[in-house]
Task: inverse folding
């Protein structure tokens, strides 16, 4: 293997990771150095984070590593390479697109009416997820997480974290759907990024379904090169901890994300150690949901202290003086309907409905298809009315 190839790889990795560290982690590193030393050793200005830097950095890294491994040929057309790294549908919030998955599509792709129609449907589904569900859940979650410790009680704490559980899924999967839909309209086929993670029955299965482009990226470019599960049990556990430590750090420059990543890594190890025998799916599903929901507390809370206080409210029963007025303020018929829709769309019912339409190509086919399209259009128009009436529409994953 040529020393020049190794040197080129190192330079490219240092450059790309260096940019990510400078923009995303330099303030975090400086703050921790100052805290540990007790002195203002580093006084850095606040560095603004370029939108989507974690996504397009990982895309560039996958290209560099794949070329080094001879898995793809180097792209000799600068504009094609620039198009790959800056492809706008999924640039700012994923999914992470691998170069080898769309290399041929950069040169030649087909745009058909059927593909465009499918892309429009996918975009509408993502738009509805984001505007109708995620934004409404965001208002509840943000309101509850902004309550002071004396104002928060157990009922509110559970309402807040369940709302955030829906918010983060429909925010991110909604954006992924829109990106996949936009790409399809332009002739690109991006891989799926979510596969109904909340129906999983273990943490291992959850990560096969959640943010698939990130989990497979870490698997292929970190976990397997570290040895994966091929070097003994102890080394496997160390590799898992490393991967999920970096998964947490990838999501943000806060100790909360570090704890969240380690938390998931710990449960993956526990599942490997205990190797639970076959149990009723309802119990394994309940276990997974509790683990994930509790984990989201660390992901959403502003600080570790905030997360710990919130967890106390979740599991140590308490009632505030404002109960139940606060609950009535947050929960109404509209929220209940949207919550039911959120539960339904967290399961593969949409896929089964589409399969049903495709299978019934006889006299019921046009009726089912028309009904499905009418439902999509109605939800799309309702979502547009929500967007027009409300300026509160945060995209969680923009900051990553």
Result:
């Amino acid at each position: 293997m040529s020393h020049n190839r190794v040197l080129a790889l190192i330079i490219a990795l240092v450059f790309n990771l260096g940019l990510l560290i400078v923009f995303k982690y330099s303030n975090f590193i400086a703050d921790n150095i100052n805290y540990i030393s007790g002195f203002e050793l580093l006084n850095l200005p606040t560095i603004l984070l370029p939108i989507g830097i974690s996504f397009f950095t990982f895309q560039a890294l996958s290209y560099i590593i794949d070329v080094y491994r001879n898995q793809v040929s180097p792209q000799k057309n600068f504009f094609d390479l620039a198009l790959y790294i800056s492809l706008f549908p999924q640039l700012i919030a994923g999914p992470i697109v691998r170069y080898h998955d769309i290399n041929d599509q950069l040169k030649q792709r087909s745009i058909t009416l059927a593909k465009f129609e499918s892309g429009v449907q996918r975009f509408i589904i993502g738009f509805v997820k984001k505007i109708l569900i995620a934004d409404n859940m965001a208002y509840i979650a943000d309101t509850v997480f902004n309550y002071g410790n004396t104002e928060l009680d157990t009922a509110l704490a559970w309402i807040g974290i369940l709302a955030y559980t829906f918010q983060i899924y429909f925010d991110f999967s909604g954006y992924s759907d829109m990106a996949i839909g936009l790409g399809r309209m332009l002739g690109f086929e991006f891989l799926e990024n979510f596969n109904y993670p909340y129906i999983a029955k273990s943490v291992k299965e959850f990560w096969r379904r959640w943010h698939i482009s990130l989990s497979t990226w870490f698997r292929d470019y970190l976990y397997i090169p570290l040895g994966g599960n091929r070097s003994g049990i102890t080394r496997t556990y160390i590799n898992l901890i490393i991967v999920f430590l970096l998964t947490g750090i990838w999501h943000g420059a806060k100790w909360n994300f570090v704890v969240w990543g380690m938390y998931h890594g710990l449960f993956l190890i526990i599942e490997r150690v205990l190797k639970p025998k076959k149990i009723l799916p309802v119990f394994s599903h309940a276990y997974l949901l509790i683990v994930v929901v509790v984990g989201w507390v660390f992901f959403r809370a502003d600080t570790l202290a905030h997360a710990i206080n919130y967890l106390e409210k979740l599991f140590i029963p308490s009632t505030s003086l404002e109960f139940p007025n606060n609950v009535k303020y947050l929960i109404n018929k509209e929220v209940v309907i949207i919550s039911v829709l959120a539960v339904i769309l967290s399961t593969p019912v949409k896929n089964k409905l589409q399969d049903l339409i495709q299978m019934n190509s006889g006299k019921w086919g046009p009726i089912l298809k028309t009904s499905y399209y009418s439902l999509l259009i109605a939800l799309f128009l309702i979502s547009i009315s929500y967007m027009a009436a409300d300026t509160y529409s945060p995209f969680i994953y923009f900051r990553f």
In short: DSSP finds 16 helices and no strands in the chain. The longest helix spans residues 3-37. The CA atoms of residues 188 and 245 lie 33 Å apart. The mean pLDDT is 86.
